[in-house]
Specification:
This protein has 178 residues and is α/β, with parallel strands linked by helices. It has seven helices and nine strands; from the N terminus they run ββαβαβαβαβββααβα. Keywords: ATP-binding, Kinase, Magnesium, Nucleotide-binding, Purine salvage, Transferase.
Length: 178
């Protein structure tokens, strides 16, 4: 008589981000934050305020992001189309904040089981996605995404052991100190 735990088909661990995507008419916001149109970059001090600015815009979309999380969502979609629902489990680190809750809720709605380490001191990782003339400019603030605790994995080792497939990114391995 063991508990009804989900046995994932696919276990994915990575750097979860909440993409904050807005479509704008011109490069004003990009210029303000010294971002190059069509480029991807990591945020420095100059870019940090962009996340709150975009979050406050009415036309924003909040979308789970990060390479491994995008892979989890795509795999889940393909498995669900084959009648294999709820077979993807995703591990990562997010902050204990509004953006982390949004990320968890959107992921759950998509049918991906998220199991997150919640970092008390660091905000959820975000990516500013500014679309001008159909071209995206990305600026990532990894924040809590780089604070994954090995203790979280150790306490959930059954999930890992029961997976048929395991996926991660080299960036996850090199960006998490622990």
């Amino acid at each position: 008589n063991h508990s009804k735990k989900m046995d994932p088909q696919l276990f994915i661990i990575g750097n979860p981000l909440l993409d904050i995507s807005v479509e704008l008419a011109d490069n004003t916001v990009l210029d303000k934050y010294e971002l190059q149109h069509g480029q991807a970059s990591l945020a420095g001090d100059k870019q940090m305020p962009i996340y709150d600015e975009l979050w406050g815009m009415e036309n924003k979309e909040a979308i789970p992001g990060g390479s491994a999380l995008n892979s989890a969502r795509a795999a889940n979609y393909m498995l669900a189309a084959q009648g294999q629902k709820n077979k993807v489990t995703y591990f990562g680190s997010i902050g204990k904040d509004e953006k982390g809750k949004v990320l968890e809720n959107v992921l759950e709605e998509a049918g991906v089981h998220g199991n997150f380490h919640h970092d008390e001191a660091t905000p959820t990782g975000t990516c500013a996605v500014v679309v001008v003339n159909k071209e995206r400019t990305l600026c990532a603030n990894l924040a809590a995404a780089c604070k994954y605790s090995s203790a979280h994995l150790e306490s959930n080792m059954d999930t890992l052991k029961n997976a048929k497939f395991i996926y991660t990114t080299s960036f996850f391995i090199t960006s998490n100190v622990e």
